[in-house]
Structures are given as structure tokens and as C-alpha cells.
Amino acid sequence: MKRYDSVIIGSGINSLTAAAMLAKRGQKIAVLERSSWIGGCIRTDEITLPGFKHDVFSGWHPLFVTGPAYGELKDELHKNGLEYVNTDVPTGVILPDQRSAVLYNNRQKNIEHFNRLMPGDGDRYHEAMKYFEANSEMIFTLFGNEPMSWAAIQSVLKSLRSKGVTEFTHHVGSMVAPTRKWLDLHFQNDAIKALIAPWILHTGVGPDDAAGSIMAQLIVFTLEAASMPIPKGGGSELVKAIMKIVTDNGGEFFTNAQVEQILVENGRVKGVRTLDKSEYHAQFVLANVTPQQLYDKLLTPDQVPAQVRKDAQNYQYGRADMQIHYALDRPLDWKDEELRRAAIIHLTGGMNGVSQSVTEAANGLLPKEGTIVLGQHTSYDPSRAPQGQHTLWIQLQEMPRKLAGDAAGQIDTAGGYTDQVVRAYVDRIEERISQHIPHFKESILKRVAISPVELERFNPNLVGGDPYSGSSSVDQFLFWRPGTGYKRHETPIKNLYHIGASTHPGAGLGGTSGYLAVKAMKG
Amino acid sequence: MNDADYIVVGSGHNGLACALKLAQAGHKVLVLEQADQAGGASKSGEVTIPGFTHDLYATNIGLFLGSQIYQEMKTEFHQNGFDIAVSDQPFASVFPDGDGIGVYTDAQKTIAQFQRHSNHDADSWKALLKFFDETAPHFLPLLQMPLPSWPAARQLYRMWRALGYAKTVELGSMILKSPRQFAEYWFENEKVQSLFIPWAFHLDFGPDVSGGAQFPFVEPPLDHRNGMAIAKGGISNLIQSMVKTLEKRGGQVLTQHPVEKVLVQNNRAVGVQLANGNKIHARKAVIGNITPTQLITKLLDQETLPSAYVERYRKFRYGPGTMMIHLALDGPLSWKAGEDYAKFAYVHIGPYVEDVARTYSDALNGELPASPLLVVGQQSAFDPSRAPEGKHTLWVQVRALPAKPQRDSLHEIGIGTWDQMKDAYADRVLKKLEVYAPNVTQQIIGRTVYSPRDLEVANPNLVGGDSVSGSHHLDQNFLFRPVPGWSRYKTPVDGLFLIGASTWPGGGLNATSGYLLAKQLLKA
User: Locate the Amine oxidase domain: which residues (chain B) (predicted)?
Assistant: First the structure.
């Protein structure tokens, strides 16, 4: 038996954030990770060829860099060797008919670019962003705090007071509108709509979902303001820098250490026991897991009130994700040169295309022309590949969690996500990329695809391959994430905290739930 | 020049409810209707063959029977010709394999239907009814209160006190779910799930739109308890009973009196100008039972309105369109699912959640859906007065169609105006229906098709054929309807008010907006 102040189950960004903050407070920390690496969805690995460093899962750090956890830790992180690099083109889009558009990290350039594509669209963009900025305090407060906290309630009341009821309801009403409505009202040019529409996929919802409007505005605003920072050398550099804060303060990390039971005594957490029957005792335990794992597996039924168990069982998951990694012998030679500097490019049929693929995925089908998210890390961090060569990070966000068929009617999916199905689907993706990058296939040195099923195998928090550990639609957001019984990351067990993407404020490489849990901990 | 205390523009049931309430208080009320018959979207007529009475658009009067105006005036309505026919088999869904599932008013029969598909789901149905019974007394009254308002705030507070934090928040989460999430939350069998999905579609919620669970949560338990009600002999009998009751109180309804302008002096509505140039003075107020779109594009000069207001009204968004197919049948349909299915008031044909999702996405993307959602109404099965003996009417509502199709998802129908496409599309609908009711074609002795465009021409409130006058998605619902900040029937013009399906609580024969506004006006 070992004794700590806090034990943290899982080693994703929220665990790491909490570990670093608690270690700085002088706590002795143990982080227990069932996998062979620390970092959860942050993992840099040479999974294609030596010398090619791929961010295997998540790959982009704007949420972290603009979040409260980074604010608290950044000095030490940088002292520990973390270095962020950035680009001036956070995102771009290419449509099937070869039209393209980009977003810069510069308001004036965006206004001019949009106005060139369609006179007036740039001006309306400026108006919309000004409006967002003027009203953003409440949003940022809600995402950076507990929804049932004084800070959040005060920010709502403040907004209500300063605007009056009419303006306030208008403001809230426009926030809960779907992305489609916001885009249709502000932009006439299809390429600009297509530039923004697929970003809503990165929040786990679709263009016709409620509250997409505010998420789309938040994303565009953040992209323009922070662009797309990534750690030089790979996402794992952030993990290393955080780990050093913890170990410098006496904390320990254990890999291949799977927790099988949270130990509870008289309604208060006592520690955890791992599969190999080792016990780690602690005053606090933070669990970075899904509600089902926490309440159905790690605790025994008698420790969990019926309502909480029911909430956990009813917690719903969203669409799945698939990743494809390439080692390329040359950069992607986009015709639109601005795209060559872009961090993330969406190859998409625009708003209607996204809407259609989202519906196909919800119906269990492999999309006919799903959105392809192309990440070009090496375009601004050449240290991640041998000289002149490149990595390509592809994410497919519109994958069915339960595979029932192929919208194009070509791939036989009867056996689920088999190697054959994955290969056939990747071929479909490569065909479409080749429409825009004629020599794409020749430039491939190696490819590795990770199916939804493999995603979950790598990380059981990604149930069915859902990269966001739970559907992010409004019924599972804010007060409702993950359930209705407990607020402020607390649980029915005293000193046991629930963190991670399944908890408020949801998915994303931000570290905020870990940060909020630490803020709520007393002692 | 004529005059009145209150002028109501539009004779939909909300306009009439408002007029009735104002007339009851002794005011002189004039209702002006552009069409040749009162009722708005509540209208019946012999549109196929004489002797066959069809409800042209709306038919289900369940909400109306729960309304306050009905509670207050039912004796008079019934004296003036309104009667109710109730089906004890409110709704069902059918599937291509010849299977089906239906909800009866009989508890045991209904549970047996669920059990046939899944024991788990039969238990879930009971649990859903229990959850509904616990929560409905607290939230259903909200649907008849102005938003935002003190009574509504008090109601919410009482709900919080009675149900506690967890259950209140759980209820909130339930209502915010998408229809698919809602169906999957409760039920495991795909046919059982499909039974709930179409109810959301009645209010423009595809299976994956958040907030769409509200109707699938509320309507099935209510129908199960109350049955499905329609107006005996046609819904115009309800409207006529309201008109007669109004006339007895000194009010007047003038049909074929299209209003061209609302007359405004010093930012106050003082009357209306008719298409023929006549002006009618309103001493107290003008009430539009119309969409916000008509108000800003036609009835008022935009220059006289604050631009922020016009801007918000311009953003009011309509849902996909509806097609109505009315059939006169030589005899009942023989449903593959069984003889009993000819007795259900509504039979929904999606068939599955996936089909409905695809149809909705097609409609939003401007495509004619390959396999539209059908709501098949069999009114004459429980109201024989609607057709000659042994014969039947059939009411087929086709949801959801694009107002202006750009493509046909099957590449079969050439894109043109709705007039050019509607018969080909109706053929596609009947071909679909035939899979489930194979004798439909041979039974048809009369057919009339209304395209989304026809709906709008007959009733300009149904913009693009949207049968509920504006999408009910969260940003346009509750206190955001029709636009945030203007949910309490006022407009920037003094003495000018807006009621009807575009305003809270939205579409459906709920008779609430007109009633609430009248009460507000009488209190002032």
C-alpha cells in the first residue's frame, strides 16, 4: 500500500492539469494510467516511419492556450522546455469544385478576403465578430467556470442588467440558433459558409443542431485570435512539461496501472485498487473516466444513489471518429497557395454536404462524401518530419458509432469496422484528396488508419470511437454534463471528483475540468 | 367609414379566440379575413367528391379541447354546432415487413403492443408514463402562460420546489434531447423508437435536432389518455361555432376582405386599409393573426419601424413545407399490418428513424425526398359523417418538403414549379403508401393535391408551405418566439399586436396566443 494526498485515475489533459496544480500546492500525487503512455488523447508517436512524429489522436492546442489551466501553469511549462509554434492561417476550406477560402489570424485580412469573395460578407463578418466580442464575457465565464457557480450566475445577471430583458433574450435566442441559421444570415458566399460550417463537427454536433450558432462564433473568434498553436516537436512535449512539474514536486506516474475499484469508507473516498491488487490510498481521488465506468464499474452499486446510476446508464455518446496518418515525401501542393500554410483544411461539400454526412453517420452509414479534416502540422513545425518531408493528420468526424451500411452502397459493412472496410473507406478518402492534389498517392511513404473500434481500444473513454466522450448536444451540456445529480465535479462520494471530457465544460484539449475540480477541492 | 374597438386581421382559430374574449367583455370586434371562408389552417370542405368532407390542413383538436377558451365557452360552441369525435386508437406506425405498432387508449392493449416488440420497451413505456405523470402537472400549465411572465416564473419555481433540483434538471434535459436521443433513451427496439419520431416532425424537428423531444414526450401520453379528437363533420364546424358565438356577442367576421396596410399615426395603429381602398378605424387596437414576415414585408412600411426590429423579424425562419393529399376512397384501406390499422386516427409511415432523418436532411438541403414521412389520417373511421356510408376519406400529410426544390434525390422528377411537380410527387407518395396498404390505388375515387405552394397561396401564413408558420427550433421557441424580446404579442407600433402560430406557444390548435393577448388587453 502506498499513500498519497491525491490519486488521479487516467492521464489525459484534465488529469495532468489537476496533477500539476495540486503538486504545486504541495500535494503528493499519483497518476494511474491503464495504457502504456501518459497523456490520454495526447500522444506523439512515430507510428508510420521513423522520424515522422504524429499526434496520434488530438493535435491542436488553441483551447488549452486560451484556457484558465494554461494561464496558471504556463511559466513553468515553458521553463520545462515547452515551446509553441503557430501559423497565420489557422484554417482553410476546399470545395469539390476547387473553390477555396481561408481564415487568417488577422481581422483586417479576413474582412478583405471575405469581401473579395462576396462584397459585403467581410463587413458582415466584422459586425458579427464585434457583436460576439462585446457579448463574449458571459460565454467565456460559462465555459471557464462551473455553470452553477456564483461567477457564472453573476455573469448572466450582469449581462441581463446591462442589456435589459429584451436585448438579453435576443442575445440568448441568437446563441441557441443552429449554425446554419447564423451562416445564412451573415454570409452569401458558399465558400465562406463552407469554411466555418465543418468546424461545428469539432464540437461534436452538426450544422442543424441547437446552440451551434454560439459554438461556431466562439470557434471562429478563437481561431482568429489564437490561431492554431501546437507544441514544437509534438503534443507529447506538453505532456512532458506538465509531468516535470508533478515529478519535481514529488509526484509519481504509473503506466499499465488499471484501476479496478475506488475504495470508499463511510461515504468518503479512501483510495483505489488496481488490477494487480495494489492499493493507493489518498485523501482525494479524481477520476478522468466516463460516467458508466465511474458509477457502474469503479464503484459498487450500494455506493451510488439510484438517480446517479440511472443518469450514468442513460448518458449518451455521439458520432465516432477515424484517424488516418500519412508520412509524405513532399508537402501537399494546393493550388491555392494560402492553403499550404493552413493548420487545418476541410475538404467538404459545404454546409449541405456536412448536414448530409452528419445525417448519414447518425443513420449508421459510412458517408458518401464525408468531411475530410486535413491537419498540416509540419507546414509550420518542420521538426516533426525529416527535412523536406511531411506528416498528414486526417480526421473523419462523421463516422457511425454503430456501423449499419455504406451511403454510397459500395462497401459491405456486415462485419463492422473490419480491416477491409477501413481500407476501402480510406481509399475513398484518398480518391477525393487526389481530385485536389494530383500527385497525392505517389507522395505517400506510409499510412496508418485508426478505426473507431481501435480508438476505443486505445482509450476506453472514447466509447464507440466517440472522441468527445459523450454527445455534446444541449441536453448533455452545462448543467447536464454528465448527469443531473451532482454539481461542481463532485460525486456522491466525499472527496471523489469526476473530471474529463464527459464532465463540464466537455471535450477539447483544454484542461478546464481538471482545473475546476482542483479549485473546488478543499484541503 | 366603418369602425370597431378591435380589428383582428386573419380568422385563424387564434384570431377568433381573441375576438371572442374581447367581444365577451363588451367590445366591438371586427375580424377581417382575406379568404372566402374563415378558419385559416382549420378548414374543411368537399374538395374531392361531393359528400366527402376533408379537413384540408389541421385536424387534431386535442390541444383545443385543453384550452382555456374552450373551457370557458364550450356550452356555446356545442350549441352552435360543434361536436367531437374521439378515436380510442389514436396513432400507430407501420413497417415494410407488414408489422406495426399502435397506441390505444386502453392500457393493456397498448402494453401488449409494446411487449410484442420488446419486454424492456413495455416496461419503459410504463416508466415514461410515470415520469410524464410526475412532471406534466408542473410543466403543461406553462404552455398556456405568457413567456416571460411572473406566473410562468412562479410555475417554474413551484416545479423546482415540488420536483427538486435533480428531477427538474432531468426534465430540462429530456425536453432538450433530439427525438432520436429521446427514443434511444427510453426504448431499444427500432420499431418502438420509430413510433415516437414522427411526432417531433409535426413541429419541424428532424430526428437529430435538439429540443425536438418535447412533442414526442407530451403527445403520446396525452393521446393514450384522451384518445385522438377531431371535430365531427369537419373542422369547419368548430370554426363556424366560434364565428356564431362571436356574432351572438356582436362581433363580426368579414371574409374576402384582404387587408393591405395597417394604418399608423404617431407610431400608433389606428386601423387598417383594405385592398379595395376602404379604411376601417380601430379605436383600441389592431391584432394580426399573421406571420411577422407579412407584417414587415407588407402591412407596415419598414421605414416606420426600428431597424433592429425589422432585422430580427427578417431572421424569422420557416421550416420545410408540407403537401396535403386528400383522397376519397370507395372502401377502407387494407393495411398489411392488420385490419385493426384502418381504425387508427393517425398512421405514421417513416418508416424508420433513419428514413425520417434522411428526409429531413434532404428537405433542408433543397432536395425532393426519396421517401417522405407520411401522416395518414383516417378521420372517417371514427367520424362516419364525413363520407357516404361504407366509403372513406383519407388525409395524407406529407412532411417535409423543400419550399423551392433544387434537385430530386431520385433524379426522376424534373425540377420546375410546384404546380408542375405536385402530381408526380403525389404519385411517389401513393406508391409508398401502397407498400403498406396495397389496395389504396384501387380504392381511390377522388384525389386532390395541395403542394407547399398551394398551401401558401391559400393561406399566406404558411410561408413556403410550412404548416406551423415558422420553425419551432429552440432559438424560435418559448420566450424566443417569434423573435427574442418580442414574445408577448407586442410590436414596436403601439396598439398593434401579433398572435397565431408564429407566436408563443406556436403551431397546433392550442387557441392560446389569442386568448392570452385578449386577457392582456382587457387588463390594460
Answer: 15-394
